[in-house]
Amino acid sequence: MGILKKLRMKLQLDHVRMKYFYLMLGISILPLLLLGYISFNIAKNTLIENQLKTTENNLKTSSEVADLLFRNIINMGRLISWSPDVRRELMDSAKYAGSGQNIMDNQTTIRIQNLISSYLIDTQDIDSVCLFDVNYRTVCYGNSSSIGSYNNGGIYPTISYSSWYKKSVKEQGRPVFFENNVLNDDDSNDTFSSVKLLRDSQNLYNPEKIGLLVVNIKKSMFTRVFQESSQNDWAVMDFSDKKESAVIKDTSSLNIELNRENNLESSLKLFQSKGYLTSNYQNQTTGWTFVQFIQEKELLKQSNQIGLATVLISSVLGLIVLLLAFSFSGSVSRPLINLRNIFQKVSVENQELNEKLVEAQLKEREAELRTLQAQIKPHFLYNTLDSIYWMAIMQKNHDIAKIAIALSESFKLSLNKGEDMIPVSKELEHIQHYMTIQNLRYKDRFQYLEKVNPEIMEQNILKLMLQPLVENAIYHGLEPKVGDGIIELTGKIKDGWVIFTVSDNGVGIKDIKATEQGYGLRNVRERLELCYGPDSTLTISSKVNEGTSIEIRFRFHAREE
User: Cα separation of 149 and 183, whole Å?
Assistant: First the structure.
């Protein structure tokens, strides 16, 4: 009887242990697996949503950069079409052709080529330019391989039957961008064309056609407007023509080919079916669609790692639960409490991991966007100043042209490609551009003298160290003075010290302490000490109605230390 009782108790204990095992299996393993599945999907959806949003912003920025480049080409076409010299050559060419001369003479060809070259503001993206008169005689300038069979001086009446010519005539002088090179029968993949019908700019009410301008543009320009990423591919497509779609430029591994039945919606569905996430943006100038592709499996590598980590954690916890269930079957409360603590810890760690992952992705994308926007601003500023310069040249306003050039060069030297150090010669060049602007403003009131030892001209110094001192001399010393003034800048090395002095014969300074607290001098003093150490100095000496002298003193080797 005793043996049977012990056997029965053992069987009951085993039964309870198995029930406890199944209970623990149900309340721990399955929820952990469910938690892992939910965490994986949350991370996946968050990554996809943030990536698409970031890509859309990048595409918008890329489109704005492309608009700047397109506008440069459009402005160049306007300058050519407004040029009285070009108008005269095209109209004279039409008259000669009307008298029976079918081939343009060599001298006329050379004159028109020289005119074309003089209006090429930025040749980085332009492959060739061709001008046609009303009798379809052509003069081309640039890469001969991109103009097909169109030789200089030849006549090509078949152009009038081409679809691209008819489209440009229909636009009545507005530039039209085509996805291919309209002059090259080989359908080159390297260039595309901008076509503009030229009309007589002096006859505003009834302008007659005087010629045709074709600009062939390198498709490589698109590589400069898109962000380079190992995960992101891009394409430029033209869906503006309902009769026919085309791919202008493609860097993806999809080998995109479109036919007449393709539209934007069907094309995006095709890319998505091949495992790509897509974003698109329509360019304002051309109407073309910019598309960016991201392989979904590459994007989700990190979320897959989260899923794998969750499975491993669940497996380890499941093994622990099994051991606890069999080892501590008599004490149910303790394993349950431990499991609850472990479950909460896993939940917190998963949540923190997801938040850190999403935050890291967002910061990376924001940094990339700020970098691209920072590149756009100087580019836009240089193009704007360049446009002002050419408008001033056309209007024969040489003062404005000088100011535009001086200001453009001054900005380039100030930015210095992001570098803090600049050669002394470049800093002096910056001052000379600044003095050009001020003398144009004040009618050559200021005389600038420069005496700098040649041995320090190519030494690097902190940029914008000397120019604020010259600016301070003009605004506080010479501007209030009646009549002309003199600024003298000297530079030398003495006993291992580099000494620069800026002197003027202006009105002087009554309160030197107040002047030293001004933003410009305080900024120079602080940057001088930060760069060259506390033993560097900035000293002001002045006499009322006689002038002011500012001296800065530092050692070159202090920068290296």
Answer: 8
Q: Which residues pair with 141 in a beta bridge?
A: 129
Q: Is 540 left (phi over 0), alpha (psi -120 to 50) or beta?
A: beta
CA distance 531 to 422: 13
Among 78, 39, 96, smallest CA distance to 307 is for 39
Residue-level pLDDT, tens digit, the chain, 561 residues: 567 655 665 555 555 556 666 666 666 666 766 766 776 677 667 777 777 788 788 888 888 888 888 888 888 888 887 878 888 877 777 776 544 455 566 777 788 778 777 777 666 788 888 888 888 888 888 887 878 788 777 788 888 888 888 888 888 888 988 888 888 865 557 888 899 988 876 776 677 888 888 998 888 888 877 765 445 677 887 776 655 555 666 665 555 555 545 666 777 777 777 777 788 888 888 888 888 877 777 666 666 666 677 667 767 766 776 666 556 555 554 454 455 557 667 777 777 777 777 676 666 665 554 544 444 445 555 556 656 656 667 766 667 766 766 666 666 666 656 677 889 998 898 888 888 888 888 888 899 999 999 999 888 888 888 888 998 888 888 888 888 899 999 999 998 899 999 999 988 888 777 777 777 788 888 888 888 888 999 998 988 888 999 999 998 764 544
Q: What share of the chain is helix, strand, coil (3-state, %, to 5)?
A: 55, 20, 25
Q: Rounded CA gap, 459 and 466, in Å?
A: 14
User: The tokens of 285 are what?
Assistant: 């100038």
Q: How far apart are the first and last CA of the chain?
A: 95
For residue 163, the cross-strand partners are none
